[in-house]
Design a protein that fits this description.
Layout (H helix, E strand, L loop, with lengths): L8 H25 L3 H4 L4 E6 L5 E4 L4 H4 L2 H12 L8 E4 L11 E8 L14 E8 L28 E5 L2 E2 L1 H9 L8 H29 L1 H23 L5 E6 L5 E9 L4 E5 L15 H14 L15 E4 L15 H19 L11 E5 L4 E4 L29 H7 L2 E9 L13 E8 L3 E6 L20 E5 L5 E4 L2 E6 L4 E5 L10 H11 L7 H5 L2
Parallel strand pairs: 10-11
Antiparallel strand pairs: 1-2, 1-5, 3-4, 3-6, 4-5, 6-7, 8-9, 9-10, 12-13, 12-16, 14-15, 15-20, 16-19, 17-18, 17-20
Helix pairs in contact: 1-6, 1-7, 6-7, 8-9
Length: about 550
């Protein structure tokens, strides 16, 4: 057995990678055993491991909005049922008010036990593993469980709150089916729900096996010590990054008129920061409220991206941060507020507002462009890429999933095989990124033709307010949602909309571009001539205004 009060640098690097490797193994099992397009093709899932307190240790490079919030779900389980946890049990949670994000994101949590050599009685859990997957449908008022116009969480689907999914090794299928059906708006495809839940159970079991193997090889005390060392290393890396920042504030307006206000105060002496969201809009009647766990995940993501070191995103990153989120505002809503868009849309705006306050990056497309369609037989969900924002010394990227989403789009062949639709075209949207010394990335245009009648939903942002530029850079171009009916009539849609599609109708989604950063060279020349009293002659510059 090897223990120490100070980490060995080589061993620290080894354990950092070992912990992440276990989470990656879990992800491979989940992808290979899942049946839904959402998990198997779009990779809309996340896996992570946690210490005995439920604090995040390491994760695979999956979905940031999942990873930064899963710890809240694990700790909720510990607080709620810590004395009753048993080996072989798996628990299910998607409650947005207990660490969840939105209801389609369902988390399976498995406590990890090891028996002592002296006593066969199980001890308390030594670790936890968890996998969070986006279910294609979990009930609610629209197929796909991403309703654009929900006003309460009940309308968004079925809540699992530390639900006992597996009891001492036995999958409780009758209880799961009962829970999926016993609701005002029941799940539309329980078979698919159950198949994906079994895949999550299998992924967790791989994590359990690997952690036990690691504990046997290196000794439990060493494994637990290095979990703390890895978290401490992440904390120190974030403190170093904070030391280079300056105070800042930002006010961010969304399409629906809501305001996100954030003030970042840097405390140089303690190398810490206060992130204060006081002044943000009160809880909304729409579903753009972001659960507190989502807001914390967005903050964690931003400060992790400021670190150059190769560290796993974990609980240590949060230690230098004091996050103030007033209760009852849209970033810390009170039950039963609707939240489905808070996870996917508001999380993106929180990230951009923080980057704006810190002055390091212009806004990215600021939306996930959530597109769902379905009926009683089919349910499909995708997020669509767009332009990322430019920064201090880099251009934005064209057609990329940015920030809080890291899923991918379904391959056209799979999409058209599994669903009665035709991907008519999918292309970049030229000149949609904001110009600047460094230009924002371009959005995309996606056209999907329907071959059967279906209900389609779009839940998006930046269709009214453009993604901002920074330091003189131009804003990105807003997105657009519209329908081309079979008879040629075009119908423009709002940022959020539910429509009935008929055979031959085409749903068109044009995603926003990212903002630019810094004045263009032409801007500098123009300003210099103005200062010198020379009339402006650059016609192209004048034309732009």
């Amino acid at each position: 057995m090897y223990t120490t009060t100070q980490p060995d640098p080589v061993r620290l690097e080894i354990f950092k990678n070992l912990y992440q490797f276990i989470a990656e193994q879990m992800g491979i099992v989940l992808q290979n055993t899942a049946t839904s397009v959402n998990i198997k093709e779009r990779l809309d899932f996340s896996c992570a491991i946690f210490d005995s307190s439920g604090l995040l240790v390491a994760n695979a490079p999956h979905i940031p909005v999942h990873l930064g919030s899963m710890s809240e779900s694990v700790r909720s389980l510990i607080n709620d049922q810590g004395d009753t946890l048993k080996p072989g049990n798996v628990y299910l949670s998607n409650n947005p008010y207990n660490g969840g994000t939105h209801l389609p994101d369902v988390t399976a949590i498995t406590p990890v036990f090891m028996k002592s050599e002296e006593n066969t009685t199980p001890l308390t859990p030594i670790f936890y593993v968890a996998s969070r997957g986006h279910q294609a449908d979990i009930g609610g008022i629209t197929p796909g469980s991403m309703p654009p116009h929900s006003t309460t969480v009940e309308e968004e689907g079925i809540i699992f709150d530390n639900f006992l999914l597996v009891e001492e090794g036995n999958f409780r299928e009758p209880a799961v089916r009962q829970h999926l059906s016993n609701h005002t708006y029941p799940a539309r495809n329980p078979e698919q729900n159950i198949a994906d839940l079994k895949a999550q159970i299998a992924a967790n079991e791989r994590g359990v096996q690997e952690l036990r193997k690691m504990a046997l090889q290196y000794g439990l005390e060493t494994v637990q010590s290095y979990m703390k060392f890895v978290q401490a290393n992440a904390e120190e890396s974030v403190r170093k990054a904070i030391n280079l920042l300056k105070d800042g504030s930002f006010v961010y307006e969304m399409d629906n008129g809501a305001i996100i206000q954030v003030k970042v105060t840097i405390h140089q002496e303690s190398r810490s920061a206060t992130i204060d969201f006081t002044g943000t809009s009160r809880q909304l009647n729409s579903n753009f409220n972001a659960p507190k766990a989502v807001t914390q995940a967005a903050v964690l993501y931003v400060f992790r991206t400021l670190v150059d070191d190769h560290i796993p995103l974990n609980a240590g990153c949060l230690n230098p941060l004091e996050i103030i989120i007033p209760v009852g505002c849209m970033l810390n809503p009170i039950y039963p507020a609707a939240v489905v868009a808070g996870n996917v849309e508001t999380s993106q705006t929180i990230v951009d507002a923080l980057y704006g306050a810190l002055g390091v990056m212009a806004a990215s497309q600021g939306t996930m462009n959530n597109f769902t369609f379905g009926n009683e037989q089919y349910q499909y969900y995708e997020t669509i890429c767009g332009g990322s924002g430019a920064g201090i010394n880099f251009d934005g990227t064209d057609g990329v999933h940015s920030h809080m989403t890291n899923s991918r789009l379904t391959d056209p062949e799979v999409l058209e095989t599994r669903y009665p639709v035709l991907l008519e075209s999918f292309s970049l949207r030229p000149d949609s990124g904001g110009k600047g010394k460094y230009s924002g990335g371009n959005g995309v245009v996606r056209r999907i033709r329907f071959l059967e009648p279906m209900t389609a939903n779009i839940l998006s942002g930046h269709r009214v307010v453009p993604p901002f530029g920074l330091n003189g850079g131009e804003a990105g171009i807003v997105g657009r949602n519209w329908i081309q009916r079979q008879n040629g009539i075009e119908e423009n849609l709002d940022s959020t909309a539910t429509v009935e599609m008929k055979p031959g109708d085409v749903f068109v989604i044009e995603t926003p571009g990212g903002g630019g950063f810094g004045h263009t060279i032409l801007d500098f020349r123009f300003c210099e001539k103005l200062r010198a009293g020379v009339p402006p002659v650059e016609q192209t510059f004048q034309d732009r205004f």
